[in-house]
Amino acid sequence: MKIGMSHGAGGEVMQDLISDIILSNIQNTRVNGGVGLEDLDDGASIPLGDYEIVISTDGHTIDPLFFPGGDIGRIAVAGTVNDISVMGARPLAIANAMIISEGFPGEDLERIIKSMDSVSRETGVSIVTGDTKVMEQGKLDRMVITTTGIGVAGRGETVRDSGLSPGDKIILSGSVGDHGMALMAFREGFGFETDLESDVAPVWGIVEAALNVGGVKAMKDPTRGGIANALNEMADKSGVGMVLDEDSIPVREEVKAVSEMLGIDPYEVANEGKVIIGVDPEYAEEVLAAVRSAPYGEGAQIIGEVTEDKHVILETSLGGRRILEAPVADPVPRVC
Length: 336
Ligand code: MG
Prior knowledge:
By secondary structure, this protein is an alpha+beta fold. It folds into 2 domains: 31-154, CATH 3.30.1330.10; 169-323, Alpha-Beta Complex (Phosphoribosyl-aminoimidazole Synthetase, Chain A, domain 2). It contains 8 helices and 14 strands. Strands 9-11-8-12-10-13-14 form a 7-stranded mixed beta sheet, with helices on both faces. A 5-stranded mixed beta sheet has the order 1-2-7-5-6, covered by helices on one side. A hairpin with a 5-residue loop joins strand 13 and strand 14.
């Protein structure tokens, strides 16, 4: 076989590659009984004494490097902060490896670094180590940034994506499809003319507010493959289903317009500043209020509830009912 674009697009095709070639060829995948590689969660954990160290890494190949609402630097730090956060760990430090193409403009690099610094200052996460390499012109598309993050949680306090049980409420922290559709619109030549902007942002504030209330059972950030992928993955791994109220899933008008024009489902494209939180029903209203008062969480909604049935079902107020399937691959490649 040869690697295709869909092998990196966060859907079933990528999952197959991961199990067939990666997982089957690595033997040591877990430390001290923590969350390991084959758990395919947002990060891994290493239990040490009274704590769990959470680690997560992400390579960024985004096209374009600068887009409405952000750039590769913002996404490289926010994306890794978010994967650490949804594991229930306070993000502490980031390592930053950059591979840059010969001829890349110095002023663009400086803009990207300043953007990384701004997320780092906003979240209190330090950029503590890094690596810089250059490849000959024509051998690399401008630049690739890989960030690795470290966070910490109390022992046994990490949150998995697989902890849902029937009756739990599903909270979504805001509107969906903004990042993927903004990138797609930009690539299609709508440029900066629409109001469509990426939602790229660090979600630690939202997660911390939710954890402080309590009752959080599972979390995931709906990146590649969108909420369709994240909700199905959470349901699948937890051995449950969901019934979602489609009217309560926030989709911005600009996102709807572009998605209809391009024929792309906003539920299947990446978000870069959102969290899905599964919560014990007794805590749901209080967690919702806490999330809404956190930065980037004002648009949060309870979108549904966990069921025993194994499907993720969307219901509309008009009585429509359909199964929300996980996408084979994200319809918009190179978004993060
Ligand atoms: Mg993630």
